[in-house]
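Narrative of activities, Objective 1.

The group set out to show that a structural description can be obtained from nothing but a protein's sequence at a throughput compatible with the screening campaign. Below is one input-output pair from the validation batch, recorded exactly as produced.
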Amino acid sequence: MRKPFAWITLLLLGIGLGGCASTPWFSGLDSEGLYAEASARMERGDWADAVEAFERFLILHPADPRAPDARLQLARAFGERGEHLSASAEYERFLERHPTDPRAADAALGMCRSYEELSPIAQRDQEYTRQAVTFCQRVALDFPGTPQADEAEVVREEMLGKLARAEFEVGRFYESLNALDSAILYYEAVAERYPATETAPSALLQLFLIYQRLEWGPEAEGVKERLLTLYPDSAAAAEVRDVD
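Output recorded for this entry:
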C-alpha cells in the first residue's frame, strides 16, 4: 500500500512544474533587458513575443524615454500579426501621449493604413472603409505638405473608390430586381458623393439608361448633359454622345 504523502509530493511537484512552465519568458528582465529582447524579436519577426514584451515594457516602465518607440513598435507588431484594430489603437495612444513627437505623422498614417487593411471587399459592410477615409483625411489635415499626408491621400482616394463601387453594386442589384426607384437613388448617390471616382460616370450612364427605359425624357437629357459636361472623355460619355 502506497503512503499518502507520496501522492501529496507528486501533486506539489506537478504544481511547481506547472508554475515554472507558465512563467513568462521575459520574467526577471530589467528595462534594458526587456526592451532589448523585445526589439530582437521584432527583428526576427517573432511578432507574438514582441507584442507580449512591448506590452510588458509599457506597463512596467511607462515613463521610460523609450516608451514612445515601444508604443510604435507594439503597433507595428500588432499590424504584422493582422490585428489591425489593436494596431490602430496603439497608434492612437501614441498620438494622444506624444502629439509633438516627430513621428506623429507616421502614427497618424499608421491609423489610416490599419483601417485600409480592415476594409472589406465591396460586397460586405463598408464601415471600416468609411473610417479609413476619415482617418486618412485627418493625416492630410493635421500634417499638410508631408509625405505621410500625400500617402494618406492616395489611400483615401482608393477607399472612396471602393465605397463608390459598393453603392454602385447595390444599385445594380436593385435594377436587376426591377426596383428602379431604389436603383435611381443609389446611382444618384454615387454621382453626388463620389464625383472624382471612376464609378461616377458609370452611375450617370445607368441613370440615363433607366430614364430612357421609363421614357422620362427631360430627366434623361439632364443626366446626359451632366455626363458629357463632367466626364467628356469617359467611356460612359462616349456611349451616350450619339443617343438622341
